[in-house]
């Protein structure tokens, strides 16, 4: 059977959001007297939720629960005002989504970005396409790589997870896909290196969004 649905990660897969994420965290680090980081450093800080982003951005000796929580809250306040200055779709994403829509593929988003910001970004950048589900990190649902979010999406779509193609740019995404029983596709245009994707169990790698269509044509799940 051909794949019946595609579930996407958000940051680093559909959206190039690194500058806005880095900008918000650097502003709050500076305001609290901590050193800031080059934008490229955030490629390795992002992917495991906003609390982990705060932990990784802090100097190691400052990573108390209280300080992490404080930085996390300050980051969300800043990002709420500054989330779309530089963020946009990666080249080829719009064409890929148009082609998937034309062929009737079911689409969804599953991100470790806070749910509020996942919805905000999706409404702004993805509103011209229909997604059956758009989920960010929610308190009541374990974050990726736990497969709970994939199972929830599969139930909503009435599709077995093994008939879903899951595409993301990080090892977290590949482990999520594998643990849920989905076909794992690594997006090499995103935040993390090819080796991380392969080491985490990617079934396939693609270097441009439109390549996803050719892959879908060859797969039997």
Q: Note the beta-strand portion.
A: 15-25%
Low-pLDDT runs of 5+ residues are none
Number of helices: 10
Distance between the termini: 5 Å
Say how many strands there are. Answer: 8
Residues in helices, as a percent range: 40-55%
H/E element sequence: EEHHHHEHEHEHEHEHEH
Oligomeric nature of the chains: single chain
Q: Which structural class do you get from the secondary structure elements?
A: alpha/beta
How would you describe this protein?
This protein has ten helices and eight strands. The longest helix is centred in the first third of the chain and has 18 residues, at 65-82. α1 (18-31) packs across α4 and α3 (50-57) packs across α4 (65-82). The strands form two sheets. Strands 5-4-1-6-7-8 form a six-stranded parallel sheet, with helices on both faces. Strands 2-3 form a two-stranded antiparallel sheet. Helices cover 45% and strands 16% of the residues. The chain has helices spanning 18-31, 42-45, 50-57, 65-82, 93-102, 115-125, 148-157, 171-180, 194-199, 211-218, and strands at residues 5-8, 15-16, 88-89, 106-114, 133-137, 164-168, 183-187, 204-206. The mean pLDDT is 96. The chain has 221 residues and is of the alpha/beta class. β6 (164-168), α8 and β7 form a beta-alpha-beta unit.
């Amino acid at each position: 059977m051909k794949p019946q649905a595609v579930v996407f990660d958000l940051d680093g897969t559909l959206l190039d959001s690194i500058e806005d994420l880095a900008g918000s965290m650097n502003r709050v680090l500076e305001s609290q007297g901590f050193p800031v980081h080059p934008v490229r450093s955030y490629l390795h800080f992002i992917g495991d939720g906003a609390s982990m982003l705060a932990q990784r951005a802090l100097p190691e000796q400052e990573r108390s629960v209280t300080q992490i929580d404080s930085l996390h809250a300050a980051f969300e306040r800043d990002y709420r005002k500054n989330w779309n200055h530089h963020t946009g779709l990666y080249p080829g994403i719009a064409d890929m989504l148009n082609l998937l829509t034309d062929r009737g593929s079911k689409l969804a988003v599953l991100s470790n970005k806070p749910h509020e910001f996942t919805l905000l970004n999706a409404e702004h950048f993805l509103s011209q396409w229909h997604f059956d589900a758009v989920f960010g990190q929610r308190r009541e649902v374990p974050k990726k790589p736990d497969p709970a979010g994939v199972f929830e999406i599969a139930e909503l779509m009435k599709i077995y997870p093994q008939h879903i193609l899951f595409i993301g740019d990080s090892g977290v995404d590949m482990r999520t896909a594998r643990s849920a029983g989905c076909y794992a596709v690594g997006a090499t245009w995103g935040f993390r290196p090819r080796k991380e994707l392969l080491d985490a169990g990617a079934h396939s790698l693609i270097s441009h969004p439109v390549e996803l269509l050719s892959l879908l044509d060859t797969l039997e799940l």
